[in-house]
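ok so for the tutorial part 2 we go from a plain amino acid sequence to predicted C-alpha coordinates. step 1 is just haveing the sequence, like this:
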Amino acid sequence: MIRTAEPVSTAPARLRTAVGVAAAGALLTAVAPAVGVVDGSAPPAFTSWPLLAPLALLPTALAALFLVRGQVLTAAAALVAPAVFAVGRLLDDLHLLVDPVDAARPELFRLTSLEPPAPAAGLWLLLAGHVLLVVAGVLATLGAEPDVRSERASFVLPATAGTLAGLGLFTAPFTSTDALIPARGTFDSPTLPMLGGLVLTLAAPALAVLAASATTHEARKGGLVGLAAVVLAVALPPVVTGFVVDGVGPAVGPFLALAAAVALAWPQRAVKDEDVEEHAVALPGARRLHVIAAVLGLVAAAAAAVGASTDHLVLPDGFPPPADYAARLLWPAAIATGVLAAALPVKAAVRPAFTVVTATVALAAAVALDAVFTATKVDVVQPGVGVWFTAGAVVAAAAAAATAALAGAVERDEVGTSPTEPALPLVAATLIAVLLALGAFALPVLRAPDYVPIGAFGLRVGSSGLLVALLAVVVAGVVALKARPGRGAALLLGAAVVTAVRAWEYPLTAARAAEAAPGPGLWLAAAATVAFIVAGALRTAR
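step 2 — the prediction. this is what the C-alpha coordinates look like for a chain of 542 residues:
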Protein backbone atom coordinates (compact mmCIF):
# COMPACT_ATOMS: atom_id res chain seq x y z
CA MET A 1 0.00 0.00 0.00
CA ILE A 2 1.40 3.38 -1.02
CA ARG A 3 0.97 6.09 1.59
CA THR A 4 0.97 9.71 0.47
CA ALA A 5 3.17 12.11 2.36
CA GLU A 6 1.44 14.40 4.80
CA PRO A 7 1.87 18.11 4.15
CA VAL A 8 4.57 19.74 6.23
CA SER A 9 4.29 23.34 7.40
CA THR A 10 6.83 25.67 5.81
CA ALA A 11 6.72 28.11 8.71
CA PRO A 12 9.67 26.64 10.69
CA ALA A 13 11.81 26.45 7.55
CA ARG A 14 10.93 30.01 6.60
CA LEU A 15 11.66 31.15 10.14
CA ARG A 16 15.05 29.45 10.09
CA THR A 17 15.78 31.29 6.86
CA ALA A 18 14.65 34.56 8.46
CA VAL A 19 16.93 34.05 11.45
CA GLY A 20 19.82 33.22 9.10
CA VAL A 21 19.23 36.36 7.03
CA ALA A 22 18.95 38.43 10.22
CA ALA A 23 22.20 36.92 11.49
CA ALA A 24 23.95 37.93 8.27
CA GLY A 25 22.53 41.44 8.51
CA ALA A 26 23.48 41.78 12.17
CA LEU A 27 27.00 40.56 11.42
CA LEU A 28 27.42 43.14 8.67
CA THR A 29 26.24 45.98 10.91
CA ALA A 30 28.51 44.73 13.71
CA VAL A 31 31.59 44.59 11.46
CA ALA A 32 30.96 47.93 9.72
CA PRO A 33 32.24 50.24 12.52
CA ALA A 34 35.45 48.22 12.85
CA VAL A 35 36.05 48.41 9.09
CA GLY A 36 35.25 52.14 9.02
CA VAL A 37 32.34 53.92 7.35
CA VAL A 38 34.48 56.77 5.98
CA ASP A 39 38.12 57.17 5.02
CA GLY A 40 40.90 57.67 7.53
CA SER A 41 40.61 61.47 7.54
CA ALA A 42 37.76 61.23 10.06
CA PRO A 43 38.24 58.40 12.58
CA PRO A 44 35.66 57.66 15.31
CA ALA A 45 35.65 59.98 18.31
CA PHE A 46 36.41 56.95 20.48
CA THR A 47 37.02 53.25 20.00
CA SER A 48 33.37 52.38 19.59
CA TRP A 49 33.28 49.05 17.79
CA PRO A 50 33.58 46.93 21.01
CA LEU A 51 30.33 48.61 22.11
CA LEU A 52 28.52 48.75 18.77
CA ALA A 53 29.22 45.16 17.69
CA PRO A 54 27.52 43.37 20.64
CA LEU A 55 24.58 45.77 20.45
CA ALA A 56 24.14 45.05 16.75
CA LEU A 57 24.21 41.29 17.35
CA LEU A 58 21.95 41.27 20.45
CA PRO A 59 18.44 41.31 18.86
CA THR A 60 19.22 38.57 16.35
CA ALA A 61 21.04 36.52 18.97
CA LEU A 62 17.90 36.56 21.12
CA ALA A 63 15.75 35.44 18.18
CA ALA A 64 18.20 32.62 17.43
CA LEU A 65 18.16 31.54 21.08
CA PHE A 66 14.37 31.39 21.08
CA LEU A 67 14.42 29.32 17.88
CA VAL A 68 16.95 26.86 19.29
CA ARG A 69 14.71 26.39 22.31
CA GLY A 70 11.77 25.61 20.05
CA GLN A 71 9.90 28.83 20.81
CA VAL A 72 8.84 29.50 17.24
CA LEU A 73 6.34 32.30 17.87
CA THR A 74 8.74 34.05 20.23
CA ALA A 75 11.58 33.91 17.70
CA ALA A 76 9.42 35.25 14.88
CA ALA A 77 8.08 38.10 17.02
CA ALA A 78 11.59 39.03 18.17
CA LEU A 79 12.62 39.80 14.56
CA VAL A 80 9.85 42.34 13.92
CA ALA A 81 11.20 45.29 15.90
CA PRO A 82 14.77 45.03 14.52
CA ALA A 83 13.30 45.00 10.99
CA VAL A 84 11.15 48.10 11.54
CA PHE A 85 13.97 49.95 13.26
CA ALA A 86 16.30 48.96 10.43
CA VAL A 87 14.14 51.03 8.06
CA GLY A 88 14.68 54.14 10.17
CA ARG A 89 18.37 53.45 10.67
CA LEU A 90 18.80 52.85 6.93
CA LEU A 91 17.39 56.31 6.21
CA ASP A 92 19.65 57.82 8.85
CA ASP A 93 22.77 56.09 7.55
CA LEU A 94 21.99 56.97 3.92
CA HIS A 95 22.67 60.57 4.93
CA LEU A 96 26.31 59.60 5.42
CA LEU A 97 26.46 59.11 1.68
CA VAL A 98 24.64 62.33 0.85
CA ASP A 99 26.24 64.82 3.24
CA PRO A 100 28.61 63.40 5.87
CA VAL A 101 29.67 66.91 6.95
CA ASP A 102 26.15 67.60 8.21
CA ALA A 103 25.93 64.29 10.08
CA ALA A 104 26.45 63.95 13.83
CA ARG A 105 27.71 60.41 14.35
CA PRO A 106 30.78 60.67 16.60
CA GLU A 107 30.65 56.94 17.35
CA LEU A 108 31.36 56.33 13.64
CA PHE A 109 33.52 59.31 12.68
CA ARG A 110 34.52 62.75 13.93
CA LEU A 111 35.27 65.52 11.47
CA THR A 112 38.32 67.70 11.89
CA SER A 113 37.47 70.05 9.01
CA LEU A 114 34.64 70.89 6.61
CA GLU A 115 36.20 68.70 3.93
CA PRO A 116 33.74 65.79 3.41
CA PRO A 117 35.31 62.36 3.97
CA ALA A 118 34.88 59.72 1.30
CA PRO A 119 32.66 56.71 2.07
CA ALA A 120 34.50 53.51 2.93
CA ALA A 121 33.61 49.82 2.74
CA GLY A 122 32.09 49.84 6.21
CA LEU A 123 29.31 52.15 5.10
CA TRP A 124 28.20 49.75 2.38
CA LEU A 125 28.30 46.89 4.90
CA LEU A 126 26.17 48.94 7.27
CA LEU A 127 23.53 49.71 4.63
CA ALA A 128 23.46 46.12 3.40
CA GLY A 129 23.01 44.90 6.96
CA HIS A 130 19.96 47.10 7.44
CA VAL A 131 18.42 45.77 4.22
CA LEU A 132 18.95 42.18 5.31
CA LEU A 133 17.34 42.86 8.69
CA VAL A 134 14.27 44.26 6.92
CA VAL A 135 14.09 41.17 4.70
CA ALA A 136 14.40 38.93 7.76
CA GLY A 137 11.51 40.70 9.45
CA VAL A 138 9.31 40.24 6.40
CA LEU A 139 10.14 36.52 6.24
CA ALA A 140 9.43 36.11 9.95
CA THR A 141 6.01 37.75 9.76
CA LEU A 142 5.04 35.80 6.66
CA GLY A 143 5.85 32.55 8.44
CA ALA A 144 4.10 33.34 11.69
CA GLU A 145 0.93 31.39 12.51
CA PRO A 146 -0.23 32.74 15.89
CA ASP A 147 -2.15 30.60 18.31
CA VAL A 148 -5.64 31.77 19.19
CA ARG A 149 -5.47 30.96 22.87
CA SER A 150 -6.78 33.78 25.03
CA GLU A 151 -4.27 35.07 27.58
CA ARG A 152 -4.03 38.37 29.38
CA ALA A 153 -1.15 40.42 30.69
CA SER A 154 -0.63 44.04 31.61
CA PHE A 155 -1.16 46.39 28.68
CA VAL A 156 -0.30 49.62 30.50
CA LEU A 157 3.40 48.99 31.20
CA PRO A 158 4.41 48.10 27.61
CA ALA A 159 2.32 50.92 26.11
CA THR A 160 3.81 53.45 28.52
CA ALA A 161 7.33 52.13 27.99
CA GLY A 162 6.93 52.26 24.22
CA THR A 163 5.71 55.84 24.43
CA LEU A 164 8.65 56.74 26.70
CA ALA A 165 11.05 55.13 24.23
CA GLY A 166 9.53 57.13 21.38
CA LEU A 167 9.96 60.34 23.35
CA GLY A 168 13.55 59.50 24.17
CA LEU A 169 14.41 58.69 20.56
CA PHE A 170 12.71 61.88 19.35
CA THR A 171 14.99 64.21 21.28
CA ALA A 172 18.64 65.14 20.73
CA PRO A 173 20.92 62.18 21.56
CA PHE A 174 23.51 64.36 23.32
CA THR A 175 24.53 67.94 23.96
CA SER A 176 27.49 69.46 22.16
CA THR A 177 29.77 72.48 22.20
CA ASP A 178 31.64 71.28 19.11
CA ALA A 179 30.41 73.00 15.95
CA LEU A 180 31.34 69.93 13.89
CA ILE A 181 29.13 67.67 16.04
CA PRO A 182 25.70 69.32 16.00
CA ALA A 183 23.31 68.12 18.70
CA ARG A 184 19.90 67.96 17.02
CA GLY A 185 16.59 66.34 17.68
CA THR A 186 14.47 64.68 15.04
CA PHE A 187 12.76 67.81 13.70
CA ASP A 188 16.02 69.78 13.65
CA SER A 189 17.82 67.19 11.53
CA PRO A 190 18.30 67.10 7.74
CA THR A 191 15.69 65.31 5.65
CA LEU A 192 16.94 61.72 5.72
CA PRO A 193 17.84 61.62 9.45
CA MET A 194 14.55 63.38 10.21
CA LEU A 195 12.57 60.73 8.33
CA GLY A 196 14.58 57.98 9.99
CA GLY A 197 14.04 59.53 13.40
CA LEU A 198 10.31 59.77 12.80
CA VAL A 199 10.20 56.08 11.91
CA LEU A 200 11.90 55.20 15.21
CA THR A 201 9.75 57.63 17.20
CA LEU A 202 6.49 56.20 15.88
CA ALA A 203 7.67 52.59 15.73
CA ALA A 204 8.50 52.34 19.43
CA PRO A 205 4.97 52.93 20.81
CA ALA A 206 3.29 51.18 17.87
CA LEU A 207 5.37 48.01 18.24
CA ALA A 208 4.92 48.03 22.01
CA VAL A 209 1.14 48.16 21.61
CA LEU A 210 1.13 45.43 18.97
CA ALA A 211 3.30 43.17 21.11
CA ALA A 212 1.26 43.85 24.24
CA SER A 213 -1.95 42.95 22.41
CA ALA A 214 -0.64 39.61 21.13
CA THR A 215 -2.95 36.66 21.80
CA THR A 216 -0.26 34.44 23.30
CA HIS A 217 2.43 34.90 25.91
CA GLU A 218 5.07 33.60 23.46
CA ALA A 219 4.39 36.21 20.80
CA ARG A 220 4.10 38.93 23.42
CA LYS A 221 7.41 37.99 24.98
CA GLY A 222 9.25 37.93 21.66
CA GLY A 223 7.83 41.25 20.50
CA LEU A 224 8.65 43.08 23.72
CA VAL A 225 12.11 41.56 24.17
CA GLY A 226 13.01 42.26 20.55
CA LEU A 227 11.85 45.86 20.92
CA ALA A 228 13.77 46.26 24.18
CA ALA A 229 16.96 44.96 22.55
CA VAL A 230 16.77 47.27 19.56
CA VAL A 231 15.89 50.31 21.71
CA LEU A 232 18.94 49.49 23.85
CA ALA A 233 21.09 49.26 20.69
CA VAL A 234 19.97 52.72 19.58
CA ALA A 235 20.03 54.51 22.95
CA LEU A 236 23.21 53.24 24.63
CA PRO A 237 25.85 54.58 22.16
CA PRO A 238 24.76 58.24 22.60
CA VAL A 239 24.95 57.82 26.38
CA VAL A 240 28.51 56.52 26.18
CA THR A 241 29.38 59.22 23.65
CA GLY A 242 28.15 61.91 26.01
CA PHE A 243 30.48 60.72 28.76
CA VAL A 244 33.67 59.91 26.86
CA VAL A 245 33.89 62.40 23.96
CA ASP A 246 35.32 65.87 24.52
CA GLY A 247 32.90 68.67 23.68
CA VAL A 248 29.91 66.34 23.94
CA GLY A 249 27.67 65.81 26.96
CA PRO A 250 24.79 63.49 27.88
CA ALA A 251 21.16 64.42 27.13
CA VAL A 252 17.92 63.30 28.76
CA GLY A 253 16.44 61.47 25.77
CA PRO A 254 18.68 58.38 25.66
CA PHE A 255 18.19 57.82 29.38
CA LEU A 256 14.43 57.82 28.87
CA ALA A 257 14.88 55.25 26.11
CA LEU A 258 17.10 53.08 28.30
CA ALA A 259 14.52 53.14 31.09
CA ALA A 260 11.89 52.17 28.53
CA ALA A 261 14.04 49.26 27.34
CA VAL A 262 14.24 47.92 30.89
CA ALA A 263 10.46 48.22 31.29
CA LEU A 264 9.83 46.49 27.95
CA ALA A 265 12.07 43.57 28.88
CA TRP A 266 10.58 43.26 32.37
CA PRO A 267 9.03 39.78 32.67
CA GLN A 268 5.27 39.70 33.05
CA ARG A 269 3.09 36.75 33.97
CA ALA A 270 0.31 35.93 31.53
CA VAL A 271 -3.08 34.95 32.95
CA LYS A 272 -5.59 32.84 31.07
CA ASP A 273 -9.16 34.06 30.91
CA GLU A 274 -10.52 31.22 33.02
CA ASP A 275 -8.13 32.20 35.83
CA VAL A 276 -9.17 35.86 35.95
CA GLU A 277 -12.31 35.32 37.99
CA GLU A 278 -10.48 33.29 40.63
CA HIS A 279 -8.02 36.10 41.36
CA ALA A 280 -10.28 39.10 40.80
CA VAL A 281 -9.87 41.97 43.25
CA ALA A 282 -12.98 43.68 44.49
CA LEU A 283 -12.97 47.33 43.39
CA PRO A 284 -15.45 50.12 44.10
CA GLY A 285 -18.27 50.43 41.59
CA ALA A 286 -17.70 52.53 38.49
CA ARG A 287 -20.54 54.88 39.44
CA ARG A 288 -18.97 55.72 42.80
CA LEU A 289 -15.54 56.19 41.21
CA HIS A 290 -17.04 58.55 38.62
CA VAL A 291 -18.54 60.69 41.38
CA ILE A 292 -15.22 60.80 43.27
CA ALA A 293 -13.31 61.68 40.10
CA ALA A 294 -15.86 64.39 39.25
CA VAL A 295 -15.56 65.99 42.70
CA LEU A 296 -11.76 65.97 42.47
CA GLY A 297 -11.95 67.40 38.95
CA LEU A 298 -14.20 70.23 40.12
CA VAL A 299 -11.81 70.95 42.98
CA ALA A 300 -8.90 71.04 40.51
CA ALA A 301 -10.81 73.37 38.19
CA ALA A 302 -11.79 75.70 41.01
CA ALA A 303 -8.25 75.81 42.39
CA ALA A 304 -6.87 76.51 38.91
CA ALA A 305 -9.38 79.34 38.44
CA VAL A 306 -8.43 80.87 41.80
CA GLY A 307 -4.77 80.45 40.90
CA ALA A 308 -5.34 82.32 37.65
CA SER A 309 -7.21 85.11 39.47
CA THR A 310 -4.80 85.76 42.35
CA ASP A 311 -1.24 87.05 42.51
CA HIS A 312 1.61 84.61 42.00
CA LEU A 313 4.29 87.11 43.01
CA VAL A 314 4.54 89.49 45.96
CA LEU A 315 6.82 92.53 45.72
CA PRO A 316 8.00 94.82 48.54
CA ASP A 317 5.57 97.42 49.85
CA GLY A 318 4.88 100.21 47.43
CA PHE A 319 5.37 98.09 44.32
CA PRO A 320 2.33 96.74 42.48
CA PRO A 321 2.42 93.04 41.54
CA PRO A 322 3.53 92.46 37.95
CA ALA A 323 1.13 91.21 35.30
CA ASP A 324 1.29 87.43 35.40
CA TYR A 325 0.83 86.49 31.78
CA ALA A 326 1.97 82.89 32.28
CA ALA A 327 -0.90 82.19 34.71
CA ARG A 328 -3.51 83.04 32.08
CA LEU A 329 -3.20 79.55 30.62
CA LEU A 330 -4.84 78.22 33.77
CA TRP A 331 -8.21 79.57 32.56
CA PRO A 332 -8.73 77.21 29.57
CA ALA A 333 -7.41 74.32 31.68
CA ALA A 334 -9.88 75.13 34.45
CA ILE A 335 -12.80 75.49 32.04
CA ALA A 336 -12.09 72.25 30.15
CA THR A 337 -11.53 70.23 33.33
CA GLY A 338 -14.54 71.71 35.10
CA VAL A 339 -16.98 71.15 32.22
CA LEU A 340 -16.02 67.48 31.82
CA ALA A 341 -15.98 66.92 35.59
CA ALA A 342 -19.51 68.28 35.85
CA ALA A 343 -20.65 66.00 33.03
CA LEU A 344 -18.94 62.85 34.34
CA PRO A 345 -21.57 61.70 36.89
CA VAL A 346 -24.32 62.18 34.30
CA LYS A 347 -22.55 60.83 31.22
CA ALA A 348 -19.96 58.11 31.88
CA ALA A 349 -18.84 58.19 28.24
CA VAL A 350 -16.88 61.41 28.89
CA ARG A 351 -14.59 59.64 31.39
CA PRO A 352 -11.77 58.86 28.90
CA ALA A 353 -11.75 62.47 27.68
CA PHE A 354 -11.80 63.76 31.26
CA THR A 355 -8.84 61.55 32.20
CA VAL A 356 -6.75 63.00 29.37
CA VAL A 357 -7.90 66.61 29.84
CA THR A 358 -6.72 66.69 33.46
CA ALA A 359 -3.23 66.93 31.97
CA THR A 360 -4.05 70.50 30.91
CA VAL A 361 -3.93 71.52 34.57
CA ALA A 362 -0.37 70.23 34.87
CA LEU A 363 0.51 71.90 31.56
CA ALA A 364 -0.81 75.33 32.57
CA ALA A 365 0.39 75.12 36.17
CA ALA A 366 3.93 74.23 35.18
CA VAL A 367 4.12 77.22 32.82
CA ALA A 368 2.86 79.53 35.59
CA LEU A 369 5.12 78.06 38.26
CA ASP A 370 8.14 78.26 35.97
CA ALA A 371 7.70 82.03 35.82
CA VAL A 372 7.41 82.15 39.63
CA PHE A 373 10.51 80.02 40.09
CA THR A 374 12.49 82.34 37.83
CA ALA A 375 11.23 85.54 39.44
CA THR A 376 11.78 84.42 43.04
CA LYS A 377 15.48 84.05 42.41
CA VAL A 378 15.48 87.77 43.21
CA ASP A 379 15.56 88.06 47.01
CA VAL A 380 12.87 90.72 47.33
CA VAL A 381 10.32 88.75 45.27
CA GLN A 382 8.20 86.21 47.14
CA PRO A 383 5.57 83.69 45.93
CA GLY A 384 1.98 84.82 46.30
CA VAL A 385 -1.16 82.99 47.33
CA GLY A 386 -1.89 82.03 43.72
CA VAL A 387 1.07 79.67 43.77
CA TRP A 388 -0.50 77.51 46.46
CA PHE A 389 -3.85 77.30 44.69
CA THR A 390 -2.04 76.39 41.46
CA ALA A 391 -0.03 73.65 43.16
CA GLY A 392 -3.22 72.35 44.81
CA ALA A 393 -4.90 72.22 41.41
CA VAL A 394 -2.15 69.94 40.16
CA VAL A 395 -2.55 67.57 43.12
CA ALA A 396 -6.34 67.45 42.73
CA ALA A 397 -6.06 66.90 38.96
CA ALA A 398 -3.62 64.04 39.46
CA ALA A 399 -5.95 62.40 41.97
CA ALA A 400 -8.90 62.89 39.60
CA ALA A 401 -7.00 61.31 36.72
CA ALA A 402 -5.97 58.32 38.85
CA THR A 403 -9.54 57.79 40.06
CA ALA A 404 -10.94 58.06 36.53
CA ALA A 405 -8.32 55.60 35.29
CA LEU A 406 -9.36 53.17 38.03
CA ALA A 407 -12.98 53.56 36.94
CA GLY A 408 -11.86 52.68 33.42
CA ALA A 409 -10.17 49.53 34.72
CA VAL A 410 -13.42 48.50 36.41
CA GLU A 411 -15.33 49.09 33.20
CA ARG A 412 -12.85 47.07 31.11
CA ASP A 413 -13.15 44.15 33.50
CA GLU A 414 -16.90 44.23 32.97
CA VAL A 415 -17.17 44.75 29.21
CA GLY A 416 -13.67 44.12 27.82
CA THR A 417 -11.89 45.96 25.00
CA SER A 418 -12.58 46.26 21.29
CA PRO A 419 -12.71 42.79 19.69
CA THR A 420 -11.64 44.07 16.27
CA GLU A 421 -8.37 45.43 14.96
CA PRO A 422 -8.30 49.18 14.23
CA ALA A 423 -8.73 50.17 10.59
CA LEU A 424 -5.69 51.39 8.68
CA PRO A 425 -7.08 54.95 8.15
CA LEU A 426 -7.63 55.25 11.90
CA VAL A 427 -4.10 54.07 12.65
CA ALA A 428 -2.67 56.50 10.09
CA ALA A 429 -4.70 59.45 11.41
CA THR A 430 -3.74 58.69 14.99
CA LEU A 431 -0.04 58.35 14.19
CA ILE A 432 -0.12 61.65 12.28
CA ALA A 433 -1.82 63.34 15.24
CA VAL A 434 0.74 61.94 17.69
CA LEU A 435 3.59 63.02 15.45
CA LEU A 436 2.20 66.55 15.22
CA ALA A 437 1.75 66.60 19.01
CA LEU A 438 5.40 65.68 19.49
CA GLY A 439 6.39 68.75 17.52
CA ALA A 440 3.79 70.90 19.25
CA PHE A 441 5.26 70.24 22.69
CA ALA A 442 8.90 70.03 21.63
CA LEU A 443 8.95 73.31 19.69
CA PRO A 444 8.03 76.80 21.01
CA VAL A 445 4.62 78.35 20.38
CA LEU A 446 6.10 81.82 20.84
CA ARG A 447 9.28 83.40 19.57
CA ALA A 448 10.70 86.78 20.49
CA PRO A 449 14.08 88.46 20.87
CA ASP A 450 15.77 87.59 24.19
CA TYR A 451 12.93 85.17 25.05
CA VAL A 452 13.98 81.65 26.01
CA PRO A 453 11.05 79.27 25.37
CA ILE A 454 10.23 76.27 27.50
CA GLY A 455 10.60 72.87 25.82
CA ALA A 456 9.18 69.51 26.86
CA PHE A 457 12.64 67.96 27.04
CA GLY A 458 14.43 70.66 28.99
CA LEU A 459 15.28 70.80 32.67
CA ARG A 460 13.07 73.76 33.63
CA VAL A 461 10.01 73.58 35.87
CA GLY A 462 7.73 74.26 32.92
CA SER A 463 9.20 71.33 31.03
CA SER A 464 7.54 68.89 33.43
CA GLY A 465 4.06 70.12 32.52
CA LEU A 466 4.78 69.96 28.81
CA LEU A 467 6.10 66.43 29.21
CA VAL A 468 3.05 65.32 31.22
CA ALA A 469 0.71 66.75 28.59
CA LEU A 470 2.69 65.13 25.79
CA LEU A 471 2.67 61.75 27.51
CA ALA A 472 -1.08 62.09 28.06
CA VAL A 473 -1.88 62.67 24.39
CA VAL A 474 0.52 59.98 23.15
CA VAL A 475 -0.83 57.36 25.57
CA ALA A 476 -4.37 58.42 24.68
CA GLY A 477 -3.64 57.87 21.00
CA VAL A 478 -2.10 54.46 21.62
CA VAL A 479 -4.84 53.20 23.95
CA ALA A 480 -7.60 54.54 21.69
CA LEU A 481 -6.61 52.03 19.03
CA LYS A 482 -7.47 49.14 21.37
CA ALA A 483 -10.44 50.68 23.18
CA ARG A 484 -14.07 50.28 22.18
CA PRO A 485 -15.11 52.82 19.51
CA GLY A 486 -16.96 55.23 21.79
CA ARG A 487 -14.29 55.22 24.49
CA GLY A 488 -11.50 55.44 21.92
CA ALA A 489 -13.14 58.46 20.30
CA ALA A 490 -13.42 60.13 23.71
CA LEU A 491 -9.71 59.56 24.35
CA LEU A 492 -8.81 61.15 21.02
CA LEU A 493 -11.10 64.12 21.58
CA GLY A 494 -9.56 64.59 25.03
CA ALA A 495 -6.14 64.66 23.39
CA ALA A 496 -7.48 67.30 20.99
CA VAL A 497 -8.43 69.48 23.97
CA VAL A 498 -4.91 69.17 25.40
CA THR A 499 -3.25 70.24 22.14
CA ALA A 500 -5.81 73.05 21.80
CA VAL A 501 -4.81 74.38 25.22
CA ARG A 502 -1.20 74.24 24.10
CA ALA A 503 -2.14 76.35 21.06
CA TRP A 504 -3.97 78.86 23.30
CA GLU A 505 -0.69 79.57 25.09
CA TYR A 506 0.32 82.00 22.34
CA PRO A 507 -2.70 84.35 22.31
CA LEU A 508 -3.00 84.26 26.10
CA THR A 509 0.66 84.85 26.98
CA ALA A 510 2.20 86.60 23.95
CA ALA A 511 2.17 89.96 25.76
CA ARG A 512 4.93 88.75 28.11
CA ALA A 513 7.57 89.29 25.40
CA ALA A 514 8.20 92.26 23.13
CA GLU A 515 7.97 91.65 19.39
CA ALA A 516 6.40 88.23 19.99
CA ALA A 517 5.63 86.11 16.95
CA PRO A 518 4.02 82.68 16.54
CA GLY A 519 6.43 79.79 16.77
CA PRO A 520 6.25 76.45 14.94
CA GLY A 521 4.75 74.80 18.01
CA LEU A 522 1.60 76.90 17.61
CA TRP A 523 0.88 75.66 14.09
CA LEU A 524 1.76 72.09 14.99
CA ALA A 525 -0.56 72.25 18.03
CA ALA A 526 -3.41 73.54 15.87
CA ALA A 527 -2.76 70.84 13.27
CA ALA A 528 -2.57 68.15 15.98
CA THR A 529 -5.92 69.31 17.35
CA VAL A 530 -7.53 68.90 13.94
CA ALA A 531 -5.84 65.54 13.42
CA PHE A 532 -7.05 64.20 16.77
CA ILE A 533 -10.60 65.33 15.97
CA VAL A 534 -10.43 63.55 12.61
CA ALA A 535 -9.06 60.42 14.29
CA GLY A 536 -11.90 60.59 16.84
CA ALA A 537 -14.44 60.75 14.04
CA LEU A 538 -12.82 57.76 12.35
CA ARG A 539 -12.86 55.81 15.63
CA THR A 540 -16.64 56.06 15.79
CA ALA A 541 -17.05 54.88 12.17
CA ARG A 542 -18.41 51.37 11.87
